[in-house]
Amino acid sequence: MSALRAGATLQLGAEGDGRRLQVDALLFDLGGTLDADGLGWGERFEALLREELPATTPGAMAAALAAGEQRVLRHPRAAELGLEEMISLHVTTQLEQLGASSPLRAARLVKVFYEETSGALARRRPLLERLSQRIPLGVVSNGCGNTERLLRECGLADLLHSIVDSSLARVWKPDPRIFAPALAALGLVPGRVAMAGDRLDRDVAAAAAAGLHAIWVSGGRTLDPSHPCAPAVELVIESVDDLDPGDER
């Protein structure tokens, strides 16, 4: 992981935006944020499965997605799973749960999901390189213990000063205590750190409760002002690419 850079700050938000943020460090969620702007793994798996099995009922779909997630979380080598194997466990379990198992179907769905995910993460490196030249970065993820493994596999871990996985920290977003290891590693108070994530109920809620600045990665969705977490959102961005500092010094 990268070395800590002291004394640097970064302004986030567009010129003229009354909610511009100036922070000393930036944390990211992983799934749904760095690997797909605003779309979590559940939403992406559901889209693939609905295209493949359009007659699936909402209840059956929810059960299949939950079964895949539990299969990964309870896997005896969960902390060692690489990206492709992890996706394969999700997909094969989902298809089994739906009574639609097929090696060829599973291989095809895994390939699509893997290529989309690995490609998106690889494309993030230039952005994270530019950001890391200005302030320290980190990832705080609800994971199965393999978050650092995944970030090393995709070539991003060396740009991060802190990587926190809920299964290793034994605390899960939206519990604000999940940020304690990252803040300790950064040596910063919460009010100088921003968290960018796609889940209002997890990323934004946890960040706000911990006293961090909350950035919602919307994926183009509109923030519903009636959502209980809406008041905690300090900055809305469509993509993490919107945080690109460019040539700012």
How do the strands and helices of this protein lay out in sequence?
Elements: E1 10-12, E2 21-23, E3 25-28, H1 30-34, H2 41-52, H3 58-73, H4 83-97, H5 103-123, H6 125-132, E4 137-141, H7 147-153, E5 162-165, H8 166-169, H9 180-186, E6 193-197, H10 200-210, E7 213-217, E8 233-237
Parallel strand pairs: 3-4, 3-6, 4-5, 6-7, 7-8
Antiparallel strand pairs: 1-2
Question: How would you describe this structure in keywords?
Answer:
alpha/beta, 249 residues, 2 domains, two-stranded antiparallel sheet, single chain, Rossmann fold, globular, 43% helix, six-stranded parallel beta sheet
Describe this structure in words.
- The chain has 249 residues and is of the alpha/beta class.
- The chain folds into two domains: 10-38 and 123-243, 3-Layer(aba) Sandwich (Rossmann fold); 41-121.
- 43% of the residues lie in helices and 14% in strands.
- It has ten helices and eight strands.
- The strands form two sheets. Strands 5-4-3-6-7-8 form a six-stranded parallel β-sheet, sandwiched between helices. Strands 1-2 form a two-stranded antiparallel sheet.
- Strand 4, helix 7 (147-153) and strand 5 (162-165) form a beta-alpha-beta unit.
- The protein is globular, with a radius of gyration of 18 Å.
- The mean pLDDT is 93.
How many beta-strand segments?
A: 8
Order of helices and strands: EEEHHHHHHEHEHHEHEE
* Residues in β-strands, percent: 5-15%
According to CATH, what is the topology of the largest domain? Answer: Rossmann fold
SS-derived structural category = alpha/beta
Determine the N-to-C terminus distance: 23 Å
- For the record, the count of structural domains works out to 2
CATH superfamily of the largest domain: HAD superfamily/HAD-like
CATH architecture of the largest domain: 3-Layer(aba) Sandwich
Mean pLDDT level: 93
CATH class of the largest domain: Alpha Beta
Shape: globular
CA radius of gyration is 18 Å
